Each structure stands twice: as structure tokens, then as C-alpha cells.
Amino acid sequence: MRIVMMGTGTFAEPTLEALLASKHTVIGLVTQPDRVMGKERGSTRQVGRGMKDIAVERHIPVLQPESINTPAGAAALKDLNADLLVVAAYGQILSKDVLATTPHGGINVHASLLPKYRGAAPVAWAIYHGESETGVTVIKMSVSLDAGDMLAQEKITIGPDETAGELEARLAQLGARLAVQVADQIAAGTAHGLKQDKSLVSKAPKLTKEHGLIDWSRPAEAVCNQVRAMQPWPTAYTFLHQPGQAPLRVIVNRARPFVGQCDPAPCGRVAVAQPGQLLVAGGATGAGQQTVVEILELQPSGKRRMSAADFLRGRPLEATAWLGGESPDSRPQA
Question: Which domains does the chain have, with CATH numbers?
């Protein structure tokens, strides 16, 4: 079949490369316009090789409209005379007119076990909510967000310390394999769809920087899930407050629930149990037991990423130090 690939970023790249290595012919790429963001020094976004660069190397035409859902966008797709659209992390919901430009419409490679986590950030939200497994679903595209019939689905286990970036890299490879599998089935006329159970739908909205702010009233496991979910972007962060000092923004890169005895403390209160060990009081479990987070790696504003031990050597903490929002009004209550 003649295929137009539509996608942007590292999740989509393996699918494009797998299609290029398959028996099908990729006759066009539609990707987002070139952006400065993501390639700037110090960015935490994953960039990869670049969809456009992969296509140019293979002399494949590239379309980069601000919106593909315009008469001009649909006409440009129609002119390519493709049989199928294959979409992975493209970033736009396709209109009925766009899907009608090919005889077989479009399929979407989505990084969740649909109908769970429909939306732009399914990997991050699966980790955030403490899921133990996730996967990839390939769906027949419709004009509703991630609501089409399921053509293929496969599960994988989420590692206990796995970040969203690490998990997405694994899911990208799985998605590439399933995309080719479904394209083969469509070509052979053997593809069969399964409708999604609407009662099981959950949402995975686009991440913002605000999603990274840690709420220390949540249990330790939930806080540590957030730290993993927000990597590589927007990262989990908090503010360190000490008497007589301005609040210090701190990115929390690695953390784990602390197993051991600690005195009860207000949520967000900082403790140094042993040299190099940075503990923060978290919220209570459902059983009412207070939890504690151990911060392992962090990055103070304007500094490099470092271990908790290195941080503590350079910045002794007052006994009244605490973590929370930027405002002093977020001080833990005794």
C-alpha cells in the first residue's frame, strides 16, 4: 500500500522507520512545523533524530502545515494519492475531510490500553496514577479523540522505577511493530475492529509545567509516581523554604518512598535522618499512616543535577526547612 505517515517526535520515529522497512511504500510525511523549542540547550524534551530528517534522507515529500484540517491541507494529502494514513503522536485531531483523502482512512498508534488514557499524554498519566501495566493500541481513526475501533492492542509491564521517557521509548518500538502488522492486515483485507467500552474511558490531557508542582500532602508513593511521570518534561518541582532566604526552586529527579521510622511531621517538612539522606514528610495512606519521601537526586535552580548528599554538603538545612509551593502561604501546618 501507499502510505502517508503523520507524526512528530521520538514516539513516532520508530513507526516511520518500520514502515520504510516494510513491504509498503511511504509516499509522504506530514509533521509539525519546525520549532525552536525542544532543540534549545538545556531542554528536557526528547528530540531524537527528527521525523523530517528521516524523510529527507529517503527523498520522501514532507508537509508541515500549521493545520492539516484546512481545504489546502486536505487537497495536498489528496494529491499524494495514498491508500492509508498512519498517525503517531501527530498532535492534531484529523477532520472528516482529511480522513476521506485515502480509501482506507487512517489508523492511529496510541500509547495506552484504550479506552484508558485517551489524549495527548497517556504514558505520563499512566505512571502518575500508579498503573502497573500499559501498552499500545492501534485504532481505526474517527473524528472523535482516540475513540475509533481497536485493530490491535498489546500490553507491557511498567517498571517500578521507570520514567515516562523510558517507558515511551519502549512503547514506541511496540507501536512500530503493531502499526506494520495492522497495515499488513488492511492490505490483505483481514483487519477487524473491536469497539471501545465507553464506560472505561479515562483522560490523559496535555501536560503543562503546572502539572509538575509537587503536592506534599499526597502519599509518598503518589509523589514518587509524579516524579517519574513528569520526566523528561515538564519535570517535578518544588520550592525549598528556609528562614531569611528566598524560596529556591528545586527539580526533583529521583525519589522513593522511605521505609523506616520517622517522627510525625507536617507534610512538606524536611528532615535529614542520616548524613546525605534527605527526607520529606508526605501525606497519609488510606489507612491513616503518614508516609515519607526520600529524595535521591535533585537540581536546584541554576545548578547542575546532583545527589541529595552533594546538595546537603553545599547547603546545610535549618531544622525548620520545608518544601511546598513558591508562596510562604503554602507552609505546612504544625
Answer: 2-200 (3.40.50.170), 209-330 (3.10.25.10)
